[in-house]
Amino acid sequence: MAIEDVVVSEALQRIRARLAELPEGQGNGYWLPSGSEDDRRAYISANREIIRAAAQHCALPAELLAGIAWQEIGGNPRIVDDVAYEVRSVVPGLEDPDKTSMGPLAVQVRRAAEVLGYDAESLAGAQRDVVVEAVREPRQNIFIAAQYLAHVKTESDCADVPAERLTREQMQELATRYNGGPYYRVEMAQAYGREFAKNLDAAREALG
After folding, report:
1. Cys staple from 97: which of 9, 29, 88, 140, with CB 3.0 to 4.6 Å?
2. What is the pLDDT of residues 6-58, one digit of tens each?
3. By C-alpha distance, which of 12, 183, 180 is closest to 196?
């Protein structure tokens, strides 16, 4: 079965319909590794319309999503993610390929599947291909990252707090959960949250 023949989930249909109204992504910093703050600013600035639209789509503050972008841009180039996914898919005994993080705003394949309305436990074949291609594609990736953030918000103490009332501390907690998932209390995830909070003003300024 070709990817085109797979029924696309309603969530992914909504994302694609919204993206049809938005400009093409630019300067996504996805192909070459870089730790440059200039690259992070350039990415957020060039994609501000998409970031704002994705945040609005998921009832989140745009600065929260921009802050996640600041943390994630400049990680592994796509070729590293692609090779990791393919190797895990064919070599027995390695980590589940659906735990591979992909896209500029790194999201695990299984997390992407969950927020897009697929059954992550039975994801296979052409359905998996649809999810992988969506999370790899830079513009859809921004929306998927936003939907994952919205999902982790529902599991937090600030689940009922409107976007405009989220505090810096609450956004830091959401960033920590974004990075750590169910293991957000571990030090690596907590350090990610602290770094997010430290760079939040820079991300907000880049967003304009």
Report:
1. 88
2. 689 999 999 999 999 999 887 654 555 556 888 899 899 999 999 999 999 99
3. 180
Distance from C-alpha of 102 to C-alpha of 25, rounded to nearest angstrom = 17
What number of other Cβ atoms are within 10 A of residue 54's Cβ?
29
- How confident is the model over 102-125, as pLDDT tens digits? 888 989 999 999 999 999 988 888
DSSP letter for each residue of 159-182: TTS-GGG--HHHHHHHHHHHHHGG
Pairing, β 107-108 against β 101-102: antiparallel
Check: CB of residue 11 under 8 Å from CB of residue 1: no
Q: What is the pTM of this model?
A: 0.90
Residue 148: how many CB atoms within 10 A of its CB?
24
SS3 95: coil
